[in-house]
Design goal:
Rossmann fold; 6-stranded mixed β-sheet; 17 helices; globular; ATP binding; ABC transporter ATP-binding protein
């Protein structure tokens, strides 16, 4: 089996998203498509999957040109795609999702759900997925939901399987499991196209690497290439992969949290009596496996959680009990872990998203009217300052790549007079060039004397940014340790083991 893309070009108005791209993928091969967010990787794969029609070029499978008028044609040709944002119905079971769009019927035209269940079990057993066909998808962890997407594609006998930024929403453990799944697919003869910007993942599983920059193929790389070499090829310039920072100049305790407990509406406790403080000019990084209370902690700091006990004081002012608007007005900047759900309004323009925190007064609103000229001037400045790649300030935020969406969120939050920055998963789904930039902005904020709380499941990021590290496990503080604590110690702490000398 061999898939070829020959001189594929895709335009959106004056923007050339793909410019005469050619590549070949063989059966039993993992071909990584590496590039920054906005480079055109996902657009190219959407052309391959029939979601977009190429303006020029052709797609050839086993020597035969394909005419793709929609995903149905791609599926019929044996091309499947696992999207970054899953295409599943949360209230349906696994079996119901797998048969959706490919329904088998039994007696009197009724849906043959038993056949779908059997298919799920067969594929799950073959690849060791351990997926229950009768489980409701919305109740499953993200990593298992991704396996459901893979089962759905394989149930349609895909010969080519495209993974579009598949690890953007996964924990490190789930990422390792996905890498093993890719190897199994390769061993079964499936052609795997892996779209990513994460260098470690590329070097771990790739047989071949094609690098795309600003819509063009700029070269092929060997999987043995160093991270520095791959990063430079992606971005087009040398990239600093380590965070450069001086020792912090510490001020007074600015954020003081005491005996904080956060529960949900059912009474389940997610944050259990934790206490810590962050000084002015310091980065306190919170480490831990996703789901150990990090989300609830950051939301409590912002006033987004209803069932909160304890105290959160910023510059001596109590924040518990205040509304979100009051917390923001107190000078708290918030980079949420899910930019699409909590950080942006996708249908709003970039300019409109940049004023969301300040839509009630100066400098963008006066006497109830938006000062359009001031807003547009500000938006143009931020697009240039933060290198947001978009046709213009009136582009809907939902049309941007993930990395550019994140830059809009960061630009908005850091453009206010801050007394505290809370950054949750600040570089999730972001390419190396954007990671470098966002890390620089976080350190610059810290160096300006602002206390910073960073929450990340990426241990590399925690170690790179932190002045101190607080590890959470099952909603409790395992310990607070220096940033130079060995990784193996941090790993043990993430399992709940408290090391000697750690501050509880």
């Amino acid at each position: 089996m061999q898939l070829e893309l020959r001189d594929v070009t895709k335009r959106f108005g004056s923007l050339v998203a793909n410019d005469r791209i050619s590549l070949t993928v063989a059966g039993g091969e993992i071909h990584c498509l590496l590039g920054e967010n906005g480079a055109g990787k996902s657009t190219l794969m959407n052309v391959l999957y029939g979601l977009y029609r190429a303006d020029e070029g052709e797609i050839v499978l086993d020597g035969e040109p394909l005419q793709l008028d929609g995903p149905g044609d791609a599926i019929a040709a044996g091309i499947g795609m696992v999207h970054q944002h899953f295409m599943l119905v949360p209230v349906f079971t696994v079996a119901e999702n797998v048969m959706l769009g490919n329904e088998e019927t039994g007696v009197a035209g009724s849906l043959d759900i038993d056949a779908a269940r059997a298919r799920v079990r067969e594929i799950s057993d073959r690849f060791g997925f351990h997926v229950d066909p009768d489980a409701v998808v919305g109740d499953l962890p993200v990593g298992v939901q991704q396996r459901v997407e893979i089962i759905k594609v394989l149930s349609r006998e895909a010969k080519v399987l495209v993974f579009d930024e598949p690890t953007a929403v996964l924990t490190p453990q789930e990422t390792d499991e996905l890498m093993e799944i890719m190897r199994q697919l390769r061993a079964s003869g499936t052609a795997v196209v892996f779209i990513t910007h994460k260098l470690r993942e590329v070097r771990e599983v790739a047989d071949r690497i094609t690098v795309i920059r600003r819509g063009r193929v700029v070269g092929e790389a060997d999987p043995t290439a160093t991270n520095t070499e791959l990063a430079a090829l992606m971005v087009g310039r040398p990239v600093e992969l380590t965070v450069q920072k001086d020792a912090p100049t510490l001020g007074e305790e600015a954020l003081v949290v005491r005996d904080l407990t956060v529960a949900d509406s059912t009474g389940m406790v997610h944050v259990n009596g934790i206490s810590f403080e962050v000084r002015a000019g310091e980065v306190l990084a919170v480490a831990g496996v996703q789901g150990n209370g990090q989300t609830e902690l950051t939301e409590a700091l912002l006033g987004l959680q209803e069932h909160v006990k304890g105290s959160i004081r910023l510059d001596g002012r109590e924040l518990v009990g205040r509304k979100v608007r009051q917390v923001l007005d107190a000078g708290v900047g918030f980079v949420p872990e899910d930019r699409q759900v909590d950080g942006l309004v996708g249908t709003f323009s970039i300019a409109e998203n940049l004023m969301l925190d300040r839509s009630f007064g100066a400098p963008f609103v006066r006497a109830g009217s938006v000062q359009v000229g001031r807003l547009e001037e500000f938006a143009r400045e931020k697009l240039q300052e933060y290198d947001v790649r978009a046709p213009g300030i009136h582009t809907p935020a939902g049309n941007l790549s993930g990395g550019n969406q994140q830059k809009v969120v960061v630009a908005r939050e850091l453009s206010r007079d801050l007394r505290l920055l809370v950054a949750a998963q600040p570089t999730r789904g972001v390419d190396v060039g954007s990671i470098e930039f966002i890390h620089q902005q976080i350190i610059a904020t810290r160096d300006s004397g602002v206390p910073v709380l960073v929450v990340s499941t990426e241990l590399d990021e925690v170690v790179a940014l932190a002045d101190r590290i607080m590890v959470l496990y099952r909603g409790q503080v395992v310990g607070i340790v220096p940033a130079d604590t060995p990784r193996e110690v941090l790993g043990l702490m993430m399992t709940g083991e408290r090391p000697a000398g750690a501050v509880a």
